[in-house]
Task: structure prediction
Amino acid sequence: MISDATVARLRSVAQQPDLTGTPYTIVREIARGGMSIVYEAVDARLDRRIALKVLALELSSSEAARRMKYEARTIARLEHPGIVPIHDIGELPDGRVFYTMKLVRGMTLGEFARNRPRADLLRLFLRICDAIAFAHAAGIVHRDLKPENIMVGEFGEVLVMDWGVAASIDATGEIAGTHGFMAPEQLRGEPVNRRADIFALGAILQLVASGDRPLCAISEKAMANDPGQRYGDVSALAADVARYLDAQAVSAYRENVAERVVRWTRRNAALVAVVTAYIVMRVIVFFWLGR
Amino acid sequence: MASLFPTTRRSVVHALRSDDSQERTRAFDTLVAIYWKPLYKYARMTWHRAPEDAEDLTQAFFARVYERESLAGFDAGKAAFRTYLKTLFERHAANESKAATRIKRGGATTQLDFAEAEAELKHETATPEDLFYRDWVRSVFALAIVRTREVITDEQFALFEAYDLSDDRDVSYRELASRFGMRETTVTNHLAAARRKFREAVLDTLREATATDEEFRAEARALLGIENDF
Result:
C-alpha cells in the first residue's frame, strides 16, 4: 500500500507544471498561495537555481493569466535592490503562464524577527520602506504587504516579494490582501492609494513596537482608519522611525517631561556617562576630604 | 490554449457498455483496480462484515457491475460516479440475500489481495467515508504508477521509485546521482520525465474512473489542484 506521505508527495509531483520546451527543471516546491505555486528550479542555460512561479491548475482562466502577466510586468518595472528581480516570462504547454525570478535563500521577515534586537528590525523596516517608496514613485501599490511577503536573504538583503495583487495607484477592483494588514478602505473595495501600503507598514511596525510608546504611536498613525490621518507618504513614516532610532522626538507622539529626559539621556549616553562619573568622583573626594 | 487535462481515455461508465469486448474487459479491470479495496474496507468497517463475507460481497458486486446495463441508472447530474458506485454497493449489500448466489465472473485480471486489505485495516482509525475516499485516491495513484512504469525507461522508473515513491524524505538529488552514477542534472531530467508521464497516467486513470467531463475536471482539480489537502 502507498503510505499517506507518499500519496501527499505524489499529489505534489502530479501538480508540477510540464516544463517541456523550456530550459527549466523543477527541483522542489517552495510555497503556494491562493493563485499560484512557486518552485525552486534550475535554469539549464545558465546553470543556476531560480524561482519559478506558475498559475495553479485551479486558476487557469484568461483573467488569471492576464493577472499573472500584469504581475510579471509590474515587477519588471520595479528595478530596485529591495524588490525581487524577474528574469523571464513564458507559457507552459498546457497554456498556463509562468515567470521566473531570483531565488531568494533566506527566511521571511516573520521568521527573521524572532529574538532579534529591535534596533536591527527597525533598520530593516527602513529598507522595506525604501523599496515601497520606490514602487509608489513608479505609481504601483503593493496591496499585500505582510511579514510573509518580505524575505531576508542570507547576506541580510531585504526583498519585497509577491506583487500578485499589486495595482496602479487609485485602481479599483477586487478586494485583495490579507486581513490584519489591509486598510479599511481596501477591505471595503474602494480605490486604494499609497496610504493602503502605509497602513500595512504600520501593521508590520506594530509587531516590532511591543509596547514602546513612541513606536506604538507611529504605528497607530500609520494605521489610522481615516487615510487622511495617516502619514502622507512612506518617506514621512520612515523619517519618524529613523528619528526614533536616533533617539529624537517623533512627530506621531507628544512625550512628557520624564520621557523627554529619558530620551535625551539615551541620545547623549556618552555625555551622561562622563558627567555622572565626574559627579560621583567629586562626591567621593568631598566625603574623603571631610573625614 | 492546450488542455489542462489532456487525456486519451474515456470513462469506464461508457466503456463498459461498449460492443468491443476488449474495451469492456479493460474498463472492467480499471474499475476493479480502483474500487475493490475502498469497497471491501467500506463493507468491513460500515457493516462489520466478516472478512470472507466482505470478500464475497465485493466480488459479487463486481460481477454484477460487469453486466452491461448495470450502470444504466447512473445520473451524472445527481452524484459523482464514485458516490454512485458506493450507493450501488450499499443497495447490493442490502439485497444480497435475495440474490442468494456468489457469482464470481466478469473476467477481471486484477488480483484482489484481501489479506493485504485486512492487514491495512488493523491500524485504521478513519471513518468509513474518509477511508473510502483515501483508498480511492491510493488506488488511482497505484494504477497510475503501474501505467507509468509501462511507458518510461527502467532508469527513469528506478529514480522515480527511489525519490518520489520512497518514504525516505531525506534523500537528495546529489545522493541519487552518486548512487546511480549519473550527473545531478540527468537525475532531475529523468525525474521530470517520469513525473510528466505519471501526471498523464493519473489524468487518464481519473478520466476512466469518472463519468462525465465535468466530474473528471472536478476530481482532477480536487486531487491535483491546490485547495484540498490529503
In short: Confidence is low (pLDDT under 50) at residues 98-106, 226-230 of chain B. The first helix of chain B runs from residue 12 to 15. The CA atoms of residues 60 and 103 of chain B lie 6 Å apart. The interface with chain A takes residues 1-4, 6, 116, 120, 134, 137-138, 141-142, 145, 164-167, 169, 173, 185, 188-189, 192, 195-196, 198-199, 202, 220-221, 223-227, 229-230 of chain B (CB under 8 Å).
